[in-house]
Write a structure and sequence with these properties.
Distance between the termini: 44 Å
Strand content: 15-25%
Radius of gyration: 20 Å
Structural class: alpha/beta
Order of helices and strands: HEEEEEEEEEEEEEEEEEEEEEHHHEH
Number of strands: 22
Oligomer: single chain
Shape: globular
Amino acid sequence: MNAADTTVTELATAATGTLGADRPPGTGVRAGPMTIRHRGFAPSVHPEAYVAPTAVLSGQVSVGAGSCIMHGAVLAAEGGPVRVGVGCVIMENAVLRGTVPHPLLIGDRVLAGPHTQLTGCTLADEAFIAAGAMVGNGAYLGRAASVAPGAVVHLGAVVAPQARIPAGWVAVGDPARAYPPGQAEAIRAALAEAGWSFLPFIFGIDDAGGRRDQLRTALARYTAAMACHHRQEQILPAADTANDGAAFAHARGRRGCRPGEREQMAQVTDHPGS
């Protein structure tokens, strides 16, 4: 155990001991990561994995042996599962999300750098995602593929094993072709050709309308979807991350969907759940 681990242990002991002595059960300072039961699923973390105290795990998330989830990372299985394999490192402030049509599946020995965003994609073993890179819905990275800082692997792109996407470039298509920054029209055309135009795919919005009307419709649907399903969340005690213990406190507001929310949610393919 190093000095940092000792400090964390001391803080955790204080939180559950002296500082929490006069508080009712479930109201003291948390000594572990924020874990949330979502739509009946609680996160599962292998005993040999490490999850930082400031990470958030929500819903059907699994973390394999020897993997490390660092500070500020968010793993949200709020539509489809999020599965992290063995020996992975998910670094600070990374955001990992599963969606209804596309779970997020990460193989073994994968590194996701700080501020990466991975949504509904599949990463084979030894994939490397550098700081600030994004991998979108339905995308696939082959074994030992790498995505450099700030690059984007777009919706449905298929990156070959050991291929490299340069810093700031955008990968589109199957097989993926990488475009340099500044080629917005070429990227848009490639997405349309592949059938992965963003607004129609994610929000069910017709690309032909004006952008203002498109975004009004998209946000009405998306906010309804989010509100509807987040009302059913339950925060779990820190000790119950692996064993799915009983939920406590903080059930999020009123349960279930309000009138009209479920109908809006059904039209969004990237929504948290139905």
